[in-house]
Design goal:
Blueprint (H helix, E strand, L loop, with lengths): L2 H20 L11 E2 L5 H7 L5 E6 L14 H16 L3 E2 L22 H16 L5 E6 L5 H12 L4 E4 L7 H7 L10 H10 L11 E2 L8 E2 L7 E2 L6 E2 L5 H24 L5
Parallel strand pairs: 1-3, 2-3, 2-4, 4-5, 7-8
Antiparallel strand pairs: 6-9
Helix pairs in contact: 4-5, 6-8, 7-8
């Protein structure tokens, strides 16, 4: 084959390869967003732009949730919300973070926690890594309450670096809906509302035969198995009345939560970037 023909073929191949590499990736069927782990680095380079919104799901995979829910309850929540956000929003979803700050549950076997500083810096390091490629807008799909303090500390650090960082307050994002359907006197953990949410999302991961009411008055600190200990006494690891949970209550709470999360993501997207 003449040398000129070979050069022409190689040149054509190079152009074709470059064009293919530069073609913007398309979302998977049924999704508006992208899963970061499903991309090649070349595809990620095209999507991780300055205006991109990066979502980081956060949910413990080893944290007690009473006798009727699994240790991975928060991860189940995070993965469900992750899927719903992917279906509805033009975002890039980073891998789920399954360890964070959960000191209130360490008396119950299987529960894990990171130190406050470690949890804070874990999120900061993840965001910094991805922000280096361009993005300046990040949203954590947060499924915990004790995680709020270290997330606020992460936000303070990142905002000082010109990075816009927001996160779900799971206690308020569906506040009106929860107050409308909740019947328990008090509670925030493995209780009526959280159990209802899982009944709606993943009923096979709930054993309502073992659901209990365990709602001692709130003490200082986390939950404790010691009736004379410091904190809120709970022999079961529940704080609230899980026996009141229903699928319909879960539907109301979860759909309100999804709507609230999506609204917060779009509000973040619409905000102008810092100069």
């Amino acid at each position: 084959m003449p040398r000129t023909v070979v050069f022409a073929l190689l040149f054509t191949l190079a152009i074709t390869t470059t064009a293919a590499a530069q073609q913007r990736p398309q979302p998977a069927a049924g999704q508006r967003g992208f899963v970061l782990g499903d991309l090649t680095w070349l595809e990620a380079e095209q999507l991780l732009t300055r205006d991109a919104v990066v979502v980081i799901p956060l949910g413990a995979e080893a944290k007690e949730h009473g006798p009727h829910l699994r240790l991975d309850n928060d991860r189940t929540l995070a993965e469900y919300y992750r899927r719903r956000v992917l279906e509805a929003a033009d975002v890039i979803v980073a891998p789920t973070v399954n360890y964070h700050f959960y000191p209130s549950f360490v008396e119950y076997p299987g529960s894990t926690t990171l130190r406050f500083e470690t949890a804070r810096d874990l999120i900061v390091d993840i965001v910094r890594s991805l922000a280096a490629y361009g993005p300046r807008k990040f949203y954590v799909l947060n499924t915990g309450i004790s995680t709020l303090r270290p997330l606020a500390a992460s936000a303070e650090i990142l905002r000082a670096e010109g990075i816009m960082f927001e996160y779900t307050n799971i206690g308020t994002v569906a506040g009106e809906a929860e107050s409308r359907v909740s019947q328990q006197q008090r509670g925030t953990h493995a209780d009526e509302t959280e159990t209802s949410a899982i009944l709606y999302m993943a009923p096979a991961r709930v054993d309502m035969r073992k659901a209990v009411k365990d709602d001692s008055p709130r003490g200082e600190g986390g939950l404790t198995r010691n009736p004379n200990g410091r904190g809120t006494y709970s022999a079961s690891g529940v704080w609230g009345d899980a026996t009141l949970a229903t699928v319909e209550k879960g539907r109301v709470i979860v759909e309100a939560s999804v709507a609230g999360m999506l609204q917060e993501i779009e509000t973040l997207r619409a905000r102008p970037l810092p100069r």
